[in-house]
């Protein structure tokens, strides 16, 4: 063993000894700090390892649960179970490894620091103390005078005793240093070697376990290669089938989506029907019906046990029902009871009736009984004949959103990169996009671009019309007007994403390629739009007068329109059949409201079957202000004689252009104004603080309103008289705009300076459509609130609740107003 400090040098107390002692003391001081740090790091590693083991254990449990859930797929289930077992064993070995680290490093090194190094430090204190005493004795002995013999003897004795004590303690100190040096080497190497052996064992065991798992992993790798090929083939097949079905003309194909026939399982027919309940309210509920085993059954959910409606169809008959307010109804009658059902179309009603008849005939034949009543005669007497046999046609109203939008010139390619067959759109810009550009548009934020799928998302009619009014060509003429002039390169399909993103940001965010008109050009355009504004100044300060009591004489506006059309005079409702469902479904919170919709749809049907757009067709019960001035209002008649007054144009900004273009319904100029930086909520201080949205209401176009709303126009901003867009739409009788604003969350309880709410305005104007719409919207909110309270309390409301009474009152007033108007 190498001796760190020599014992003879210790006895000499030479400078070499002192230097060696200082080096040893400094070395052991640094050793102590390093060992303390290593122990703390080991403790941190062990704590983190335990957290990791706990998380790993939860992860393995998740794999086990996934394996149990995938038991139907033998490959996935067995593979995941094997993986979970191996990972669990590795987790156990991790636990053992961290336990070994705690025993070998933390415990051993901590003991070495706290015991051995502490003894060394105590010995050092004694050595330092006796060294000082020896130095004092030497100095005192040297200072004693020669002539004082007793002091000389005393100093000599003290020096001798001190030297003996120093030599004894110094020898012990040197021994402690030399032993500690040897033990230091032993303890450090022993602890680290133990930890490294634990790591070696851990990795050996892991290798053994994964070696056992390797054949299974190789087998799965081979299967995955085949799965990738099969998955790609299945994806192509599904996309092809999806495209084929999407392009299918359902007007000529059998409506296979509406019903199903499974003869192998004894199902004569199955599909959705509305069933009238037998309770006091006679509510209608949509259920899945099926005819099987000579029985008519239905169920609410797939796993529910079917409820038998008719036990034996041989005892029943089926017939049309034309005496109810709902369409496409038929009744199944038994000797003791009858059941009222409703199909979605006339073709489906005929198909269900035919299926019930065939099931009745089949049941008689299977039981060997004679059919005493001719089914053909019964069919012609009670149900009428089926002209198309069992062929059903699904009535699809219009084309899909993809087909309608892509039919616009220029929309068949991505607006920004030119990729063909785009499947996404920016609804506030009115453009079509490929999937890559749509992702970039999403990153711009909804204040710049709102992205929606043309195939996966639902599209409201007003939004579809807006998309068809704009399109890639219109937008590119505005947002890329200066692109070639300044040398901007338009990206192509396949270009790097960074280049496409830089181009899109320059185009829509920085608006680098927009051509800004001169002040004179913009001023002339604004003046042109102002001249198109036919509104008499001040005519919005008065509400339409209450009409006189109903008389057999029809309104002037209706008579005028009838004389132009040459057809029978009738009352035109503002509800358009093609768009009623989309606009009205927002308020349809219960099955009770469906009967109202059916009643209202019945009023709409006319001989010619035609309707104009919701925004452009005025209601006869609520005329526009100009019509009121021309026909009924004496006050308005006096105002009509006054010419339109135009003040001097003082503002030719982009906001002013947007304001006047909205009134003129010039969608292209509105887009251009926004591209020039116009504020969509710009306020015209010279015109009663009106906004572009209020001007769009004045212009009477639903599309311009939708465009402004999609571009973040405020639906509740008020003018100087405290009237918002909902007030103005109600005053003008624009039912479509009223419905649109309600869908966008307009507050209908807001009152203007005359303390009138939109509802009170509609009541005063006797506008049955808008009154009903506003009250249904208000009732919808109350129903949602009551349903929320019901969910919290867990109690069912009384049938004659306050909301139910309001609903009945609303229906009665609606019917009364409808009769008065007709």
Q: What's the quick description here?
A:
58% of the residues lie in helices and 7% in strands. It has 822 residues and is α+β, with helices and mostly antiparallel strands.
Structure notes:
The protein has 822 residues and is of the alpha+beta class. The protein contains 27 helices and 11 strands. The strands form 2 sheets. Strands 1, 2, 3, 4, 5, 6, 7 and 8 form an 8-stranded antiparallel β-sheet that branches. The chain has a 3-stranded antiparallel β-sheet with strand order 10-9-11. Strand 2 (267-276) and strand 3 (284-292) form a beta hairpin. The longest helix has 98 residues, at 149-246. The radius of gyration is 45 Å and the shape is elongated. It is a peripheral membrane protein.
């Amino acid at each position: 063993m190498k001796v760190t400090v020599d014992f003879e040098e210790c006895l000499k107390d030479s400078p070499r000894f002192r230097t060696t002692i200082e080096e040893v003391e400094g070395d052991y001081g640094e050793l102590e700090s390093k060992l303390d740090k290593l122990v703390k790091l080991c403790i941190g590693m062990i704590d983190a390892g335990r957290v990791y083991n706990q998380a790993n254990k939860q992860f393995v449990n998740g794999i086990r649960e996934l394996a149990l859930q995938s038991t139907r797929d033998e490959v996935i289930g067995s593979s995941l179970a094997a993986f979970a077992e191996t990972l669990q064993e590795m987790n156990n070995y991790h636990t053992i490894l961290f336990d070994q680290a705690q025993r070998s490093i933390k415990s051993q090194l901590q003991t070495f620091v706290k015991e051995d190094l502490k003894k060394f430090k105590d010995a050092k204190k004694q050595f330092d103390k006796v060294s000082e005493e020896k130095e004092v004795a030497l100095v005192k002995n040297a200072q004693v005078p020669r002539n004082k013999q007793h002091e000389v003897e005393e100093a000599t004795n003290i020096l001798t005793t001190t030297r003996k004590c120093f030599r004894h303690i110094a020898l012990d100190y040197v021994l402690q240093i030399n032993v500690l040096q040897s033990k230091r080497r032993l303890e450090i190497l022993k602890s680290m070697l133990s930890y490294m052996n634990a790591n070696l064992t851990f990795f050996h065991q892991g290798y053994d376990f994964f070696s056992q798992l390797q054949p299974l992993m190789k087998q799965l790798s081979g299967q995955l290669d085949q799965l990738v090929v099969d998955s790609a083939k299945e994806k192509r097949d599904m996309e092809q089938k999806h495209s084929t079905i999407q392009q299918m003309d359902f007007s000529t194909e059998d409506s296979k989506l509406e019903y199903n026939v499974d003869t192998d399982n004894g199902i004569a027919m199955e599909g959705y029907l509305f069933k009238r309940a037998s309770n006091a309210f006679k509510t209608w509920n949509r259920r899945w019906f099926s005819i099987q085993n000579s029985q008519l059954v239905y169920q609410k959910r797939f796993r529910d046990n079917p409820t038998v409606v008719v036990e034996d169809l041989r005892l029943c008959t089926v017939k049309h029902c034309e005496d109810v307010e709902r369409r496409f109804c038929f009744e199944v009658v038994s000797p003791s009871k009858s059941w009222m059902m409703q199909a979605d179309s006339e073709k489906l009603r005929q198909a269900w009736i035919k299926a019930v008849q065939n099931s009745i005939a089949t049941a008689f034949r299977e039981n060997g009984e004679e059919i005493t009543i001719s089914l053909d005669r019964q069919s012609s007497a009670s149900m009428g004949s089926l002209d198309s046999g069992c062929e059903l046609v699904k009535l699809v109203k219009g084309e899909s959103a993809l087909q309608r939008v892509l039919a616009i010139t220029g929309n068949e390619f991505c607006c920004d990169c030119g990729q063909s067959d785009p499947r996404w759109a920016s609804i506030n810009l009115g453009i079509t996009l490929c999937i890559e550009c749509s992702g970039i548009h999403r990153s711009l934020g909804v204040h710049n671009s709102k992205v929606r799928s043309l195939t996966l998302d639902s599209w409201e009619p007003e939004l579809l019309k807006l998309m068809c009014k704009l399109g890639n060509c219109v937008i590119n003429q505005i947002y890329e007007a200066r692109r070639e002039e300044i040398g901007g390169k338009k990206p192509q399909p396949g270009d790097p994403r960074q280049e496409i993103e830089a181009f899109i940001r320059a185009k829509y965010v920085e608006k680098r390629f927009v051509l800004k008109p001169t002040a004179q050009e913009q001023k002339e355009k604004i003046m042109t739009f102002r001249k198109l504004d036919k509104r008499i100044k001040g005519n919005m300060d008065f509400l339409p007068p209450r009409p006189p009591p109903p008389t057999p004489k029809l309104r002037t506006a209706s008579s005028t329109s009838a004389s132009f059309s040459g057809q029978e005079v009738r009352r035109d409702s503002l509800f358009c059949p093609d768009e009623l469902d989309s606009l009205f479904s927002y308020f349809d919170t219960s099955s009770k409201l469906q009967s109202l919709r059916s009643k209202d749809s019945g009023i709409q049907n006319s001989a010619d079957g035609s309707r104009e757009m919701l925004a452009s067709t005025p209601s006869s019960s609520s005329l526009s202000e100009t019509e009121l001035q021309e026909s009924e209002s004496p006050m308005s008649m006096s105002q009509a004689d006054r010419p339109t007054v135009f003040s001097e144009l003082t503002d030719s900004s982009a906001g002013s252009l947007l304001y006047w273009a909205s009134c003129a319904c010039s969608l292209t100029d509105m887009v251009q104004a926004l591209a020039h930086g116009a504020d969509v909520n710009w306020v015209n201080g010279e015109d009663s603080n009106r906004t572009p949205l209020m001007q769009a209401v004045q212009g009477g176009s639903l599309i311009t309103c939708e465009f402004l709303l999609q571009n973040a126009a405020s639906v509740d901003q008020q003018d100087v008289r405290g009237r918002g867009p909902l007030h103005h739409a109600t005053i003008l009788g624009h039912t479509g705009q009223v419905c649109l604003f309600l869908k966008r969350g307009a507050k209908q309880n807001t009152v203007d300076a005359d303390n009138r709410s939109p509802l009170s305005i509609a009541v005063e104007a006797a506008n049955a459509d808008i009154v009903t719409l506003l009250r249904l919207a208000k009732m919808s909110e109350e129903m949602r609130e009551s349903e929320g309270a019901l969910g919290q309390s867990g109690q069912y409301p009384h049938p004659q609740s306050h909301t139910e009474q309001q609903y009945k009152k609303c229906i009665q007033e609606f019917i009364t107003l409808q009769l008065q108007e007709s």
